[in-house]
Amino acid sequence: MLATQGCAIIGGGSPRNLDVISVSSPQFRDGAPLPQDYSCKGGQGNPPLRWSGTSGAKSVALVVDDSSTHGGPEVHWVVFDIDPDTTELGMDDVPRGARLGRTTSGKVGYTPPCRTDGSYRFTVYALDAKLSLEQGAGLARTLESIASHTIARGRLTANTIE
């Protein structure tokens, strides 16, 4: 349950005012369906993403979750310690030097979503520090660390899967 609470902190809001990061993808628009290629029925891995508004950050993190599940949010991907000068992520790519945390399923890496009626949030966080976590760090611990260091946040949401 702690992982769900941690995700709610990062995914749902924060008690402090945060700067806004602009997040986009060349493959889908905010509120549009996620292309099937990036779901469990496709084979492309994660979709490409672009962002701006992370100046002043010491590192960047990315969390992909489905906020529409009845048992609480399901986390599909956690990437942290992304170099703050990085402004995009390629298809099926992890930036050099970045680390991956565990997902809700316990897997390390992108776990493609399957629910066609999901609401998939690709949230980018600007952080005031690099996280002192190892590759494959546990979900609750990673989400708590991201939440406690967030100085800016932006989100791109895919409603459903094509």
UniProtKB/TrEMBL annotation:
InterPro entries, per the entry: PEBP, PEBP-like_sf, YbhB_YbcL/LppC-like
- Highest taxon of source: Bacteria
> Hey, which family's this protein in?
Belongs to the UPF0098 family.
Q: What is this protein called?
A: YbhB/YbcL family Raf kinase inhibitor-like protein
